[in-house]
Design goal:
Blueprint (H helix, E strand, L loop, with lengths): L10 E12 L5 E13 L7 E9 L2 E10 L1 H11 L8 H14 L8 E8 L4 E9 L4 E11 L2 H161 L3 H110 L3 H27 L21 H8 L5
Parallel strand pairs: 1-5
Antiparallel strand pairs: 1-2, 2-3, 3-4, 4-7, 5-6, 6-7
């Protein structure tokens, strides 16, 4: 009855571990293996027998079994009011057990198995129950008999055989895994060797490119520096020459204007003297005119008196004197008119000279403004020269920093090669492969940027950027150096 080594005509309908509630003093739940076999009796009638085996894989003495044939099933059908026939009983029992297995993970399973041990009779009752909202239903109760010592030994032998088979399968899997691991290790070593050779080749190419780039950059810097120095010197010479010419022309014009101003001042002084002399002469002539008028009046009075008294010889003399006085008066009047016209002419000449002086002053002021503008232009050109020098210094600093960055990359490549030579475990190999891929991308990016550096001009303002590996982020590296003007 407890033959766990299946006969030739036996077949397993169900074989799984179930969560079984053991209704003993502890009311515990245990994981028990339940096997259902459908075997054929070797009797002449060849009747089918359903065998149930319930045992604990961790406890070889906890072993129960039962055999159900058509006669036993008929008694169960009458006692438990079953409505199925024996032909459908094995499949129905398997379906109930599968429902119990599917609801084990639920907090409140509907279908479950319960085992009620009986110490007196050394047997147990297996109940397959269903819990609904009203009550707990028992679909099937099967009495299981506990195995004796011989069957326990057979069970232990079966368990040991199964464990040995599992051990053999595990050892075979282990050997296969070791072989696969050894193959992968050899593959990784070959990959590491190829990566190392590739890195060495890349390093040599990188050093060759760096030397060429450094020589080209130094040549361009020297050429640009020489050209810039020549251009600055030419501009300085041209500016100095233009400044000297402007100062000479301005100085000559200023001297000529000063001489003209001096001559105009002398002419003005002479004209003012002549005006004063003319005014004094006019005053003298006017005084003489007033005196002559007074004399004429007196003579007229005297003439009137004489006409009334003695119109003789004295009258004639007085007429002669009067005529002479009139002639003198006309001469004085003509002299006064001439002096007045000369005075007006001198005043007009003085106004003309003053206008010329004002125009000369305006010209001097314009020349002063031109001199100030020329000084501003010279200062701006000097500031541009200082800017060119500062740009050249900034570019030299950037080139030095780029050389330092390239030396840092070279050191990191050597460190990476040493790390690759000293590593052998799989996780470390994966990490090293990632680092190698990262370094390859960084090297490609550096080669691209170094090729782009050849197109930079002298007067292009350069901006320094931090090393991309300071943050260990190649995206940040590209973002920093991409800020450089192109």
């Amino acid at each position: 009855m407890f033959n766990f080594l299946s006969p030739k005509d036996d077949r397993f309908l169900f074989d799984a571990c179930l969560q079984v509630r053991v209704q003993d003093d502890t009311h515990r739940s245990s994981r028990l293996r339940l096997q259902i076999q459908l075997s054929t009796d070797v009797s002449p009638f060849s009747a089918e027998i359903v065998q149930l085996h319930l045992f604990d894989e961790n406890d070889p003495y906890a072993c129960y079994s039962a055999q159900i044939n058509d006669e036993v099933f008929q008694r169960l059908k009458i006692q438990q009011h079953l409505i199925i026939e024996f032909a459908a009983f094995p499949q129905t029992l398997v379906e109930l057990l599968r429902m119990c297995s599917s609801e084990e993970s639920l907090a409140s399973p509907r279908y479950q198995c319960e085992l009620r041990p009986e110490r007196i009779s050394n047997s147990a009752v297996l109940d397959i129950t269903e819990v609904n909202g009203f009550k707990k239903l028992v679909h099937l109760s099967i009495r299981l008999n506990q195995a004796d010592e011989g069957n326990v030994r057979k069970n232990m032998i079966t368990t040991l055989t199964r464990l040995k088979l599992d051990k053999d399968r595990a050892e075979e899997c282990l050997r296969a895994a070791e072989a696969k691991l050894h193959e992968q290790q050899n593959k990784y070593e070959r990959q590491m060797e190829s990566q190392r050779l590739q890195i060495e080749k890349m390093k040599s190419d990188f050093e060759h490119d760096m030397n060429q780039l450094r020589s080209r950059v130094n040549l361009e810097v020297r050429r640009d520096t020489d050209g810039l120095n020549r251009e600055i010197q030419d501009r300085m010479d041209r500016l100095c020459f233009e400044k000297t010419d402007i100062e000479t022309s301005l100085r000559s014009r200023l001297n000529s204007l000063e001489e003209q101003i001096k001559s105009f001042d002398n002419q003005k002084a002479s004209l003012e003297n002549r005006i004063r002399e003319s005014q004094s002469e006019i005053q003298q002539v006017e005084l003489r005119l007033s005196q002559e008028k007074e004399t004429n009046r007196m003579l007229q009075d005297r003439l009137d008196i004489l006409n009334r008294t003695d119109p003789g010889k004295e009258n004639a003399e007085l007429r002669l004197k009067l005529a002479q006085v009139k002639v003198d008066l006309e001469t004085a009047r003509s002299t006064v008119c001439k002096l007045n016209s000369e005075k007006r002419h001198l005043e007009e000449s003085l106004e003309h000279k003053q206008g010329q002086v004002e125009r000369r002053d305006a010209g001097i002021k314009t020349m002063s403004e031109d001199i100030l503008r020329a000084n501003d232009i010279i200062q701006k050109l000097q500031a541009e020269i200082k800017t060119y020098h500062s740009k050249l210094k900034v570019r030299s600093d950037v080139i030095m920093k780029q050389e330092e960055l390239l030396e840092t990359k070279d050191k990191e490549l050597r460190t990476l090669r040493k790390n690759l030579e000293g590593q052998s475990d799989d996780p470390r190999l994966l990490q090293l492969e990632k680092q190698i891929a990262h370094k390859d991308s960084v090297i490609q990016w550096l080669n691209k940027k170094l090729n782009e550096l050849q197109g930079h001009k002298v007067d292009t303002p350069l901006m320094t950027a931090p090393s991309p590996l300071q943050e260990n982020n190649p995206a940040t590296f590209g973002r920093h150096l991409s800020n450089r003007p192109r």
